[in-house]
Design goal:
Helix content: 25-40%
Order of helices and strands: HHEHEEEEHEHEEEHEEEE
Number of helices: 6
Number of strands: 13
CATH architecture: Alpha-Beta Complex
Bound molecules: 2-oxoadipic acid, magnesium ion
């Protein structure tokens, strides 16, 4: 087995056992392109277990997020059907290593969107917009990683919740976002923090995935990346994200 395939296996094992694993040692660090190759191998392992890819998540599209994890490049990862959770339902803390919640905007596509596209083309490909919460759970010890590490680890994606669908032409440029824990606001931000406009995250998704030979199709979900820092989760917490004009999405941690 190559080192890359072994790394994909090791990360997959970390997911399945909810146990942290080590980062790539200094001497074996790889670049983002190699990280995406490892990510694709890991997704292939999940496909073989019957999981289906239903979209992508963009990562590190805001300053707040870049600062929190110390990586300053936009990344992406795949979302599978097994990662989706029932809105209003629960998240089992023990299924994860050190989960964090972050508020996101989700786009649902009504047509294929791939390669270099304009903001207008991206907007016209949207079927619906929804409030979302992404659960990130770095498979690495202490939630620490390099760019290559995090890309290989599917950009830390672990689960996600989608709220009610809103109309596709809703102006998402500057919406207030509040992440509430047990009824108290913990993170407050604006959708403008996402690359200056969340639609730019959709443009980046089309372009970056195409470079890796992955095509965004009709029906796919695209998470635009968090506008605020992520909040560590513990059992007993009630989590809710509220977005201006979009509504709420929430769940409990058990
Ligand atoms: C990397 C994933 C970042 C986002 O929304 O910015 C991300 C991480 O923070 O572990 O999902
Ligand atoms: Mg995210």
């Amino acid at each position: 087995m190559t080192t890359l395939a072994a790394t994909a296996q090791r990360l997959d094992q970390a997911i399945r056992t909810a146990t942290a694993t080590h980062q790539m040692p200094e001497a074996e660090q790889f670049d983002a392109a190699t990280g995406y190759a490892v990510q694709a191998m890991g997704i292939e392992l999940r496909r073989r277990r019957g999981e289906m890819v239903i979209g992508v998540k963009m990562g590190l599209t805001s300053r707040a997020k870049m600062a929190q994890v110390g990586v300053d490049e936009v990344t992406w990862g795949r979302l599978t059907d097994a990662m989706r959770r029932e809105e209003g339902g629960s998240l089992v803390r023990a299924d994860f290593i050190h989960p964090r919640a972050e508020p996101e905007i989700a786009f649902v596509l009504k047509r294929r969107l791939s390669g270099t596209v304009s903001l207008v083309e991206a907007a016209l490909a949207i079927e619906a917009v929804a409030p979302a919460v992404e659960i990130i759970d770095s498979r690495y010890e202490n939630f620490r990683f390099s760019l290559g590490d995090v890309v290989a680890d599917n950009s830390s994606s672990a689960a996600f919740f989608l709220g009610p669908y809103a109309r596709p032409d809703l102006d998402v440029a500057n919406l207030g976002i509040v992440l509430t824990i047990d009824g108290r606001p913990r993170e407050i931000g604006s959708s403008a923090a996402i690359l200056g406009h969340p639609l730019r995250a959709l443009v980046a998704a089309a372009q970056m995935t195409a470079r890796a030979g992955h095509v965004l199709e009709a029906g796919d979900i695209v998470l635009a990346g968090a506008a605020t820092a992520a909040v560590p989760l513990e059992a007993g917490m009630q989590v809710e994200a509220e977005m201006q004009s979009l509504g709420r999405v929430g769940f409990s941690v058990v």
